[in-house]
Amino acid sequence: MTFSSLPQDHQRRTASRRADALMDEDVARSEFRPGDQDGEQIDRDERAALRRVVGLSTELEDITEVEYRQLRLERVVLVGVWTSGTAQDAENSLAELAALAETAGALVLDGVIQRRDKPDPATYIGSGKAQELRDLVLESGADTVVCDGELSPGQLIHLEDVVKVKVVDRTALILDIFAQHAKSREGKAQVSLAQMQYMLPRLRGWGQSLSRQMGGGGSSSGGGGMATRGPGETKIETDRRRIREKMAKMRREIADMKHGRELKRQERHRNKVPSVAIAGYTNAGKSSLLNQLTGAGVLVENALFATLDPTVRRATTPSGRVYTLADTVGFVRHLPHHLVEAFRSTMEEVGEADLILHVVDGAHPAPEEQLASVREVIRDVGAHRVPEIVVVNKADAADELTLQRLLRAEKRAIAVSARTGLGIPELLTWIDTELPRPAVELEVLLPYTQGALVSRMHAEGEVLSEEHTGEGTLLKAQVHQELAALLEPYMPAARR
Ligand SMILES: Nc1nc2c(ncn2[C@@H]2O[C@H](COP(=O)(O)OP(=O)(O)OP(=O)(O)O)[C@@H](O)[C@H]2O)c(=O)[nH]1
Ligand SMILES: [Mg+2]
């Protein structure tokens, strides 16, 4: 049941209850004094430093907590400012915002777009439109407004003042989803760091809001406001410093974890196992493709950002060569820059790969745009020299003309369906031909006691012929340098 089906007065009552709740929060907030900040509190925060930051919200609560609360998005109205491009572009963007909001667990009640040259510096949408938005919020019974962009702290506050419910922006929403889905220690730490980075400049906003509240209604901005602003500002300075310290600590920890991952990657490199990275827009079907290609049970969800941590699997080509296949975090348009930074780690993996499978959702209304925005990030992380195969996924659901158009525009592309398996054998064969060829061609006669070496030649090299003789296995193969060194004693020349 939706709110719009309820009688008007119920809606109004609900709205006023919400307003009361908002005031309660304000009261709670104004009870804060710098003196509350005792040693025990800091200690508790310190111990919680690596705990997952559950989410960010503009819910006006305790400004000293760095572990901001869950967004608890429930009933949201979306609002976008359409500055350039076609009406279709603007609608796609809002549709994506709706998908993001649903992923975060919200119920999307409505969405509006305003055509403007640029967002209003004070309230994001124009002030007249903000009033209309207020009506829409009341009418639909929404408790949150989600803006399709990154808003300044001032814009968030001013818009919140008009619509009287919490206002969050696209960045906070994405951060919230990231926080809900990050699984590994590193992933969680990176999300926390990004959240703190997002929060830092916004503390001033909370402070202003606090002093305004404490200044009391009706009075001018001077007087009581001034008297209470002093301690408020000090408090914010303390918070800022603590957040900065935490961020520094977290950066060090991430650097350590990164070192561990680096070692693993070097290990793979040393073993010369070719690597394939699956990249692509969020929800394109990357995890599904990984499952199809390897039979691995990786989480597949019809939600954006189902995957946040790189998942690496071993896989085999039809000719029997072993390679690694890495699933990656989905890209999304307008990914705030500090988020790109935070998630660079998984993208570095892409840069190190021997081949990128760039998955695009063929059933999406604007697949070309997704291709372009993912490529931008690939360039950003210096992975543009890695060969790429464009995998147009969801061919079972895509429209034939769209598929044709994509395959014409992209020279190195293949249409597949990770769901039905269509095109998967062809893709596997293609991967086989794209993987780097091993370096040394040799012939060895391995005694039957050296079965392990035979297996390695199959897994890491390319066996051209194999013959079982009275003395052992006679193999002709191409292998990498290190394996060649191990095989040296068994080369005919060495047996002389
Ligand atoms: N019809 C159809 N749906 C597909 C296909 N492949 C994936 N899907 C669906 O698309 C949704 C997203 O799939 P995922 O594999 O989780 O996508 P992803 O790219 O890994 O998404 P993130 O990890 O969130 O970035 C799921 O509902 C899948 O069932 C396909 O070939 N055809
Ligand atoms: Mg995934």
UniProtKB/TrEMBL annotation:
UniProt KW Metal-binding keyword: yes
Gene that encodes the chain: hflX
Pfam family, one: GTP-bdg_M
Keywords from the UniProt entry: Cytoplasm, GTP-binding, Magnesium, Metal-binding, Nucleotide-binding
Name used for this protein in its record: GTPase HflX
Region (Disordered): 1-42, 211-235
Protein family according to the UniProt entry: Belongs to the TRAFAC class OBG-HflX-like GTPase superfamily. HflX GTPase family.
Localization (cell): Cytoplasm
Function noted in UniProt: GTPase that associates with the 50S ribosomal subunit and may have a role during protein synthesis or ribosome biogenesis.
Domain Hflx-type G: from-to ranges: 274-439
Species the sequence originates in: Streptomyces johnsoniae
Recorded coiled-coil stretches: none
Subunit relationships: Monomer. Associates with the 50S ribosomal subunit.
InterPro entries: G_HFLX_dom, GTP-bd, GTP-bd_M, GTPase_HflX, GTPase_HflX_N, GTPase_HflX_N_sf, P-loop_NTPase
Extent of Basic and acidic residues compositional bias: 9-42
Keyword set includes Nuclease: no
Start-end of Gly residues biased regions: 214-227
